[in-house]
Structure formats: C-alpha cells, structure tokens
Design goal:
alpha/beta, Rossmann fold, six-stranded parallel β-sheet
C-alpha cells in the first residue's frame, strides 16, 4: 500500500494562503525517483507565481504544487535509473512540470538526471538550499548557447578572463561565483556592502556596491586591461547596467539573464536562462555526475546561501514564502523542514 501524501497547494490563481491537503502519491516514471522530502527551500519564483498568477504564468494548471529545491531520501527508483537506490540521501531540482514534481509535498517525483547524492555529514536543510540556484547558474555558465565557459575542475588554472556576476549574494549568484572560479575565471560581482566579505569568501576577486550611483562606470573602469568572459544578470532590473558595461569592455559580449531580456543594445547578445534545460544536454551530465558528487565530498563546493529554517511542516510553507517576499532576508535561504 502506497504511503499517504500531502502538499501545500495553490488552488487557484493568486490564492493566499496555500492550502494543505491530501494529494496522490507519485509514481516513478522512466528516469525518475521518488524522494521523501526532508527539507524544501523557498525561491523568488514561489512568490512570483502566487502573486502574479496568470499575468505571467498563463501555462500553469491548477491546483498547482510549487517548490523547486528539495532534499530527502530515495524511497522508489523508476525504470532506467542506475545511479540511485532506495535509502540514498539526495538533493535535487523539483522541476514542477506537473503536480507529481512540485517540491512542496511529502513525496515528490524527481528526474534522476538533475539529482545528486549528498554526503552523510551534510544536513538536509543545508543540501536543500542549492539545487535550483546551482542548476540556474550552471545552465547560464556552461550551455553552448549561453556563456559556454570551461567546465569546473578541482585544480583550476587561471585562464585570464573575467566574468561579471550581478547579485553575487543571491542563491544563483553564490553558485555562479563558486562554479566560475572552479572553472578558472576571475569574478567581479555586485552586492550590498554588508555582503562584500561573503562574496569574496566564496571566490569573487572584487565586489561592487550595486546601489552606487557610479556602479556602471566603476565596473567599466575595473575591466580596463581585462578580457571579458561575458556576464550573468541575476537581479531583476540589473540588465540595463550589465548591458552598458559589457558593451564597453573587451572580450565576450554575451549576457545570461534571469529574466527575459529587453532593450538589448547592438553588439550585445542576451538570453533568458531556464534551470532545467541542462538535463537535456552534456552540461547536466558533467555537473551532476562528474563534478558535484566529488565536489561536495571534498568540500570544494559549499552549499550556500546558509539555510534559515522557518519552521516544520507544510503549514509553514506560506509563512516562509511571505518572509521571502518581504525582502528582509539577505545572503540566506529560507527553508522549511518536513
């Protein structure tokens, strides 16, 4: 007999609060595993979907189960999955393509390609903070139709190129900095002054105050004598600043964007990143199979930002989303345990 399952459900567009209710236990399809969720993290997309509804997300079907970051234990393994077994501790991207694969539930179906084993000494709350941020970062950094950077290694050699990452203290920024440095790139990033040390601690060589009235000119000046590897515009509204900088520096003119880019200047290329696309190409294999397991075991990659545990149980998902939406949490990621 299958276990009972429950979820925090968005019953209709813009409904508030989420409703905790029984939902079908997911069945593992081809290439999938079923994970008993121990911790799930909150992302901006969660409050965007709830707040904006059909205005930006017309493709959503209701009732909708959100949640992209999960960590937990494998309880079932579907056909054509060889790298996991029942009992494995894992973290992965809950793609949310249907109700089975949203992370805000006790049992979730995950695509094995975008799931990673986690070390025994890594808490589920720590592991839950980074799947979406890491997938989004890696998709923008390494896919051939984006920045197409060199892959990360455990003994990177400086390659003489500098990457600009706007919003280095964000979840995506934190992962992008670590990956880019592991790939041999120098990283310039932006944050609030209180997070300068945080960004430098994970590998950024220079950090700039994103609120400075001279931020654009400061970055252009800093890039003098440097060869650009391109840029990653993570914070909404940062694209116009990043475009101006990249248009005036030597080297690559591509900008990976967290949102759909508009008003892209001549000579600059830009494209919106989707986290899950790396599962369909070699980037997913390289990152999830060849790099991450060893990187986590050897502590070469930190699971960051640090978790801020809001509470336990599905009934706390809504409060956690509201806290994230308030903008009062910085350089941490809100987590709910289940």
């Amino acid at each position: 007999m299958a276990p009972t399952n429950s979820a925090a459900v968005l019953t209709e567009p813009k409904a508030h609060p989420l409703k905790v209710e029984s939902t079908p236990y997911p069945i593992a399809g081809d290439g999938e595993i079923i994970v008993k969720v121990a911790a799930t993290a909150i992302n901006p997309m969660d409050w965007y979907i709830q707040t904006l509804g059909e205005q930006l997300f017309a493709w959503l079907q209701y009732p909708y189960i959100g949640g992209s970051d999960v960590a937990g234990t494998v309880v079932e393994v579907g056909p054509n999955v060889n790298k996991f077994k029942v009992g494995d501790r894992v973290a992965g991207l809950a793609a949310g393509f249907d109700a089975r694969s949203g992370g805000f539930q006790n049992y979730v179906a995950l695509e094995a390609k975008i799931v990673m084993p986690i070390p025994d000494d890594l808490e589920f709350t720590e592991a839950s903070v980074f799947p979406l941020g890491l997938c989004t970062a890696a998709s923008g950094l390494y896919q051939k139709d984006f920045l197409a950077l060199d892959y990360p290694s455990f003994d990177p050699k400086p390659n003489g190129k500098t990457l600009l990452i706007w919003a280095g203290a964000s979840s995506v920024g934190t992962n992008a900095i670590q990956l880019a440095v592991a790939s041999g790139y120098e990283v310039y990033t932006t944050s609030s002054p209180k997070n300068f040390d945080y960004c430098k601690g994970i590998g950024a060589s220079r950090v700039f105050d994103y609120k400075s009235p001279t931020i654009t000119q400061d970055l252009i000046e800093a890039f003098k004598g440097k060869t650009s590897a391109g840029a990653y515009a993570i914070q909404p509204g940062s694209e116009k600043f990043v475009f101006e900088v990249i248009s005036k520096v030597e080297g690559a003119k591509f900008v990976a964007c967290a949102l759909e880019p508009t008003n892209v200047p001549n000579g600059v290329q830009a494209k919106m990143v989707f986290a899950s696309t790396l599962k369909d190409n070699e980037v997913g294999t390289v990152i999830f199979d060849q790099y991450l397991p060893a990187a986590l075991n050897q502590k070469k990659l930190q699971c960051l930002p640090r978790p801020l545990v809001f509470g336990h149980g599905l009934e706390n998902i809504q409060g956690a989303i509201d806290l994230g939406k308030s903008g009062s949490v910085s350089a941490k990621k809100i987590v709910v345990t289940l």
